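WARN retry 2 of 3 for item q-0093 after timeout on previous attempt; input resubmitted unchanged.
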Amino acid sequence: MFKRFLKEYDFGNVSIYNQSNNEFIQCEKFVLTDKHKISITNNNGKIICKLHPVSKNGDPVELVKIVKDGNNNLKNTHDEITMYQDVGIYKYDDSEGSVTFDKEGNFILPEKNYVKFYSHDIPGKVTVSFGFKVNNQDSEGSVKLYNGIRTLYIDKNNNLILENGEFKKEIIYQGVENNVWKNIIITRTDNNLQAYLDGKLIYSNEVSYQNGGYTIIGSGENKVSLSISKFRLFNGHITSNQAKAISEYDLRSSTNETPVFHPLPSRQIKNVELKPVLSWSTHEALQPENITYHIEVSKNKNFKNVVFQKDTDDKHVKVHKGLESNTTYYWRVSYDNQVSDTFEFTTRKDGNKLYHMQKNSLTLMEFNIWGIDDRGTNAAPKYGSKYVAEVIENAGADVAVLTEGRLNAKAVAEELGWYYVEHDDFSKYAPGVVSRFKIESIDTTNSRTLSLKLHDKNFNRHYSLGVIHPSSSANYNSWDAAVTQAFNNELWTNIQNEEKESKLKVLNVVVDKLFINKDDKTSDLIVGDFNTVMSGEFIKDSEFETIRTYAGQKFLMSSKLMDDMDFKDSYREVHPNVKEIPGYTYSWFYQQDKQKGGRIDHIMYRNNKNLKYKLKPINSYVTHYHPVTWVSDHSAVVTKFKIVNNK
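OK item q-0093 returned
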């Protein structure tokens, strides 16, 4: 029907005519390709329009199959699989014993033991399947599946209980037999969850939340010995017929693997340099030896006008020919008559426009990246640093404060070709900074702060930058208290004490190093994950104005100190209505905690009356977008300042 009116990759608006109500229902705007389909469902009167990717043969693609290796460890047979790059299997042993295996190779989880692996590049549709057998009677155990459900329990009465994203528990099956193997399948689309037991549908319901990107089998608080067999993870929502086949462990699929995957730059990344390095990964087991790759770059999808091509034995190539600025390019890799998907990126602005933009603006990003080592983050262990660099590129930032990014700062800066500062403290909680400006370190001795000066020599502008990341107790959080209405004198006394001992103490470090003796040559910035909201969140017309007397500046002393020093909140300067635009930054990863965490990541600024220019925030936003996967439990905050005359 659509082919008569639309070409591939055109935008299509879809409307449905509801004859009974004599009205049109408007669906979202979709990009139509031959790899997608539109589905329209009526869920008890609620019309849902969705765009789905379609696999070439309609079968789900197996991503994970856990088996026992030769050293009696757990192993995923798919080490390198499309859409499953950030993968690792971790076994946690403790005094209660480690994972063991029976003679058939099934693994057994004793008390307080679990297996955790990452699956961050998997899209919304995902299916998990495994066999389980309860080995202890009168006990309770759990299997946590963060790709689709919160927690699946088997209680001491042998009921199968599902805990959803709002922590509501439902019995979905009664009477699971002891010492009998059962197969459980959990499958989901973007907003629907289904559960099958031995191939029969036992649960179906709508889900409105997103989950983190890892899966845990077992729990640190497990009270039951579970045997687990044939654990498998699939990319794709399954049908009832497929569920029956999977439960009998005879799923047949003939997936057509692409020759390469994981392109860098990632799909649709902006602000790419004019002579970029293109790289990719491969499925080693699926390719013959001595491969020569052929790379093509074009300004159109059909590659009729190839502007760069090269043959190489490597898995990367530098485009030596300068590409045009502010232009979308398409590229692909081929070998032995196999052609990859088409990837795309957009180059940065041309030199004159870039110079003009940098002359008249400053774009600053605060990003708690949840780093774990130079390569990655907790949410993207394998490619996290590369993805962080692309998030910075996409935002067009000039400076990025990487809270919990000390271990990643160097790798991110190398991706961008920027300057960087690592904290002296070799800790994943310590901050780092990357910048296209030269960085002067003033103080890096406190593990929770950085005191720096940035020098934009092109335009003779200088910035004093204080980075803070105070520790915080979840028990004494003012925003949490406001949300839960749990305020009382004892709680607020504890909040006040934590402000003194943690947040205020950390803030005073950068104040002493940078701002007590005011530098007449710099604009001033205090940026970081403050682990607290600002007192302005409790002002009149905010969501929690009724308790603002409890959360006033008397308790939020770090906020009051910044107010007293004339620092302004750049996000609230752009978005003063707290109720309409709350700007929550924690946590994207744990959606149910988003409101509870509040807006705790901040970009504060102060202008200098002695300078000829001043900073004026003209745009500020919170983002958790990357085309492959988000990399952190926090969202990033971006503020664009316009450089204006200081009159």
